[in-house]
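Objective 1b of the project was to move from sequence-level analysis to a structural picture of ligand recognition. The entry below was assembled by the postdoctoral researcher (A.K.) and checked by the PI before modelling. It contains the amino acid sequence of the target and the SMILES of the bound compound, pyridoxal-5'-phosphate.
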Amino acid sequence: MPEALPPQLGSTTTGLPFPDPQAFDPALQGLLQGASDLLGRWFATAALQSPLPGLMVLPPVAPGQRGLSNHALLAEVQQLMEGAYNPNHPGALAHLDPPPLLASVVGDLIAAGLNNNLLAEELSPSLSRLEKALCAWLAEAIGLPPGSGGVPASGGTLSNLMALVVARHQRGLDGVGEAVVLCSADAHVSLAKAMRVIGLPPGALRTIPVDAAGRLDTTCLAEEMVELERCGVPVIAVVATAGTTVRGAVDPLPTIAALCHQHGVWLHVDGAIGAVFALCDSHRHRVAGLELADSVTMNPQKLLGITKTSSVLLLASPAALSSTFSTGLPYMEPSWGGGHGGEAGLQGTRPAEVLKLWLGLRQLGLEGITAVLDGAISRRRQLHQLLAGDGRLRVFGGSFHLLAVRPAALDRAGCDLWSQRIRQRLLRDGLMLSRPDYQGYHHLKAVLGNPHTTSEHLEALSAILLGSCGEAAGASG
Ligand SMILES: *Cc1c(COP(=O)(O)O)cnc(C)c1O
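Corresponding predicted holo structure:
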């Protein structure tokens, strides 16, 4: 018990705000308590606020001459919180940014307190082991073969980038300037970024058309792969998407995997949205074929509500990570088994993001994971039903919890104006959608991953959307 420490051991204070290493520190306790009260009140009043706050005054930015007291610090934090995006509002439906799981909030706090570094084992003995073990569990849980594993990354953009770097290295294509990457026209923008980072021209990302359901057209892919082979153009990887960002479409993974197998090409599946569905027996069919990938990006920070950032790159052969990225880390003790975290990916120093992922998944349990996925799918189904029968809206959906709509009667300019106007209209009622530009038209997009959203919210949403079509049609004659 902290109180049992002799009083003289509690007085090594340096006068600086670091936790006392010899006694339970009342200043630390006060700050934690105050912060937890602030956060608790923020959660408890989330539904009374808007998903998107209005203008706020930024607190002072630069450090003052004298440091601030706990009390003053908390007042400034509160000011900042008033201007924060509010994912806990039941009408927060715009993005793939759900409310945070409770245990993952605490996991982030503990990880910050431990301040370990996943760069090397001696800087994070238990957490390094946890990270490897949890990545191995995740990889096998989504169906990758025994011995599979992976590494966390600060976001799916980085997971996708690392996947391409690994694929290129494993295929012996480092420094080959003509090499290309194939993906669908609806693949995520992070792939275009990755091409810049790995030093290939934009044209080296060859996009294959999608079908009417937003899935990569495998006939076109097959033709393109034959043509590239005929011309001697090396392919770094095919990137299939399991859950496109606007509508949640899943590319035909088994067919793509067969083509990759036939041509000896690396298959990366960008499952930033969809891979979590493979964790659950009753939803795995939505991403059938995921288990055939060489590598998979999964973002538990999206639907599962693990606090940001939480992404993992999972591989059938995780040794490919260290054989791609390892430098020998000459200023560290050798690894005592399995390799240092800093040798398994692009990042050096990394926080213990694994802690909140592990704690969040343990808190949910497999039943909780299933319940989160069930809820998201059933809200999408309900909204789809409310909107689709009418015919005034074109509804774009897929296998998951995303829907994008636009009025059938409007042209591009009409959709642009409609989407701006209706987004503002919805915000007045505490309903926040996003406004993606998809296939040349602005849409309104709903992401139904928020567990607080009820049938009543969806009915209110659909009433406004359907009503707006009448207005829109009237306005354009
Ligand atoms: C969100 C997303 C990403 C990128 O993830 P970040 O964590 O935002 O970097 C990649 N691919 C798809 C399909 C996504 O939806």
